[in-house]
Amino acid sequence: MSVGRGIDHWGNNPGDSLTDTLDAVDSSLDRLLASDPIYWDVKQKKTVLAWLEKVEARQAALRLRVLASAGDIAAETGDKDASAWMRAELLVDKGTARTQIKLAAGVATYELVADALATGDVSQVKARVITKALADIGTNPVATTEDLALAEKLLVDYATRLTANELRIIGKRILAEIDPARFEDAEAKALLAEEERAHQRTALRIWDNHDGTVGFDGVLPASVGYRFKTQVEAWAQPRKQQLVEKGSPLPPWGRLMGQGFARLLETIDPDALPRHGGDATTVNVVISLDDLRKDLGTATLGFDDVNGPRSQRPRRGRWPATPRSSPGSSAPTARSSTRDVRAGSSNPSSARRSGYSRSAAGQRGATCRRSGATRTTWTHGQQVGRPI
Asked: Which region ranges are annotated with the description Disordered (predicted)?
């Protein structure tokens, strides 16, 4: 590896010493890679992993320092920054390169963050979290320079004890920790704004995979998403316990969660759903019209093969289905429950409340029968018994 061997008149360029140092690092890595970790004991593996974590942070600090002073590379290539050279020579995506250059500029701004990264006490991911939090504080009109300096000190200290995600949460409310009396109202407004943004981003998309499954994805507010997760896990966990008790191998947790979600839907009371023009579950039963009339007590609504349009009351018994026929068709219309409609019932309100009302009443008249009515479609059988 060579980084240039020109004569150094001013003592500013590393010259040969830099090349020797990089070669020494390469040699050390070669010796480590030549050893097979399978023969290491637990203590050695822990030592190497801890050392690599620190070395990665220090390596990131060196790279960010070089990128922060890489303006001459951009000047040589005639670009805005060094990202074009990184794309051409190092095959680094331009977006990734510019993200690193931006982080380099941020770390160079905060001395404590740069020092912690150089010593390996803070990883590059945590450094990015800290610089973003400090940048937000810098744009806060209420925060002062002293607040910014104290926030940097606290966040660097927290970074040695917290994960990156925990540090991100702390960074959002670090000002309230510095001076609760002064920043409490600002934090409350920030939380309200965050909740509002979460509701605006709420979305759910469902599609048919055409292989017997349905796919979906979406974004939910945290308050809704965690409740959903807890309820699905409540149904997934008993299935796991049953498999453990039987000694069966456990399927992937994602499959258990999917089965728990399906079970959760089965427990929802259809009568508690809003009246939205459909049934919670629709079961389609295909049976010949002759067999249905021969074996069951039935009624015909709408078109009759022999007598044409007519309506007939059911005989004594229950309706397992509401048949409808048209010329050349013998497909009955299914009902969700046989207990909703009883034969011989003449109470229109009970029919309105049942799942029968949407199917059967929609066959008698597809639109509102009242003179001057503007409703053109059925919703939930609101016109059974009397037109409204």
From this structure: 299-388
The pTM score is: 0.56
CA-CA distance, 232 to 261, in Å (whole number)? Answer: 5
Give me the pLDDT at residue 293, please.
74
Q: Which of 84, 124, 74, 87 is nearest to 103 (CA)?
A: 124
Written as one string, the DSSP assignment of 170-228 is HHHTHHHHH-HHHHHHHHHHHHHHHHHHHHHT-EEEEEE-SSS-EEEEEE--HHHHHHH
Query: Strand pairing of 301-304 and 308-311?
Result: antiparallel
Neighbouring residues of 143: CB distance < 8 A, sequence distance ≥ 6: 137, 151, 175, 183
Q: Between helices 124-138 and 145-159, what is the axis angle to 10°?
A: 160
pLDDT tens readout for residues 107-162: 999 999 999 999 999 999 999 999 999 999 988 888 899 999 999 999 999 999 99
First-to-last alpha carbon distance for the chain, in angstroms, is 88
b/e 97-111 (16+ beta carbons within 10 angstroms → b): bbebbebbebbbebe
Please tell me the distance from the alpha carbon of residue 179 to that of residue 97, in angstroms, as a whole number.
37
CA distances from 80 to 70, 77, 127, 375 (A): 11, 9, 24, 63
Token pair in block for residue 311: 């309506």
Angle at 238 between CA 237 and CA 242, to 5 degrees: 120
Nearest 5°: the CA angle 133, 134, 135 is 90
- Could you tell me what percent of the chain has a pLDDT over 90? 41
What are the C-alpha distances in Å from 288 to residues 296, 300, 332, 333?
12, 14, 8, 12
